[in-house]
Structures are given as C-alpha cells and as structure tokens.
Structure prediction request, 329 residues.
Amino acid sequence: MTKGFKSTVFLKIPVSLILIGWIVYKVDLGKVWEIVQHAKGWWLLAALCLHVFGYWVSGERWKVLLKAQGVDVPLSMTIKSYLVGTFFNQFLPTIVGGDVVRGMDTAKPCGSLTKSLTIILFERFTGIIVLLMLVSTGILLQIGRFKEVSYWPIFVLVFFVAATVIFLWMEGFNLSFLERKIPFKFGKAIIRKIDTVLGILVQFRSHPWPLVKVILWGLALQLTFILHYYLLSIAFSLHLRFSFFMVVIPVIFLLSMLPVSINGIGVRENLFVYFFAKASVSPEKSLALAWMAFVMILVYALIGGVIYMLRKGEKETFQEMEKVREEAY
Prediction:
C-alpha cells in the first residue's frame, strides 16, 4: 500500500474503535442481547431472505448498464461478482474493496479495466440519485412528525443535484477545463471521475430507455433495502411507519459512506441510535436492529467468500487488487 493509503487506514481504525466504545458505553449490552433473543424469528428470516431478491436486482441493474455499453454478460456472473464484492467489503475493506473486485471481474468482457470501473462508478452515481429521490419522498410523507428537524437542506440538495444533472445532460458540459484550474491532486481526481460519469450520462441521450431501466432497478433495490430494515423493525416490535425508514435508512447509508471509519463501523451504529431516538426508540433496540442487519450482511459475505475460493484460475492476487484500487481511487 502507498504511504498515503496506509496513513488513511490507521486513522480510520481508532475512529471506529472510539465510536464503537462510545455506543457500547451508552447502552446496556445485556438488554441488547435480551431484545435479540425475544425477536420474532419468522420476520428475521424474511429480512434475511429478502437479500436474495436484492442481489438479483443488483445483478440485473449492473447487467443493463454493461449491455448499454456494448458488453453482454450472464446474470449469474454479475450476481456472483456482487457476492464476492460483499465479502471483500466486509472482511477486507482496507485492502481492496468490492468495487475493485467487480471491476476486475468484468475487465475482460469490457475490453479494459478503465471501462469496467467507469461503468461501476456510473452505477454508484445513479444509486445516489435514487437515494436522494427516496429521501425526498419520505420527507414529504413525514413532514410535521419531527418538528425539531429541518428538512430544507435536503430539499435544496435534491433540487441542486437534479438541476445540475439535467443541465449537464442537455448541454453536454465538459469539466476538463475545471480540472486544469484546480491545484490539488485529490480535487483533480474528483473532477475526472465526475466528468467520466457525465460522459456516460450523455451517451444515453439518443437511447434513454436503458438509463430509465437502471433508475427503475435502482429504485427497486433501494426499496428492498429499506423494506429489509422495516421487517427487522417488526421483528423487534418497534411499531414504526415505512415512510420513517424511507427517510432515515438512506440518510444513514449515505453518511456511513463517509471515509472516516473502517467500512462505516461505529458511524453506522451511532447514527441508528441517534435517528431512531427521534421516534422514541430505545438505544438498545436501535443497536439490536443495526447489529442484526450487519450480521445478515456477513452471512452473504461469507457466501461470497466461498464463491471466490471456488474460482479456478481466476483468483487475482491481493497485490494486483491493491494496485487497481490505488490507481482507481
């Protein structure tokens, strides 16, 4: 690993430990375990099985994007790659990351690793747009429920993002001039990635139907993700509206993506306790829900690990993956 990447990792580890230590200090772990023991088993099973549908939708969405760029791969390949990516995200997040693994999986059919990673980057971009759409819808349904919360910043953000995307798509704006004016290497890299995403977006002008399908699949995926947490809330007898989850879960997910801890560990748990407290949910129940959801992800991550170990002649070395990550990110 490069020196800069190592220092970033070593900064994230203590942040995760401090945040986990803080949340453990605030709650009664005995009560958390008692809540888990009294959870409704069939609802837990339903939440666990819902991930199967989620991986199928993820595979379909990725397949549509690849096909729109002239790359045809079987659905089974995209689903398996997602599972393997989950394994690397959960168990080896500081070494490679799931997106790098998926990029390497489709590099050959795409003809280049750059094209493969670019498609994945665009997939992430559309996912964030869908998340913002769901947050806006959820807020409209929740207005007046939490009087101490101001929703205007989120509305402004959604409007700004939507207006910017529409303008850049219609005008075919090029950001290369901005890259030349920014003196910082990190800033230049961000501009290049945005410009790359916009380049793909413009390609859908004459044939927008694949983009519409990607957005619809993304909407189905995020609703499945939110429904997963809603089912867990029923298992733990939280009695919360689905619209509450439409606001809170996307916000928690987006904030957990901030590169301040290892794989969002610590950040995610504290966010669950903070937001669910607004709905009068005890810290113990919030933490039980957050940790149960994490355990379920680990189940599928282990399945992805088995799939990776069973590959014949396709397993890349960690050195190769590490190099790709450093070049891409």
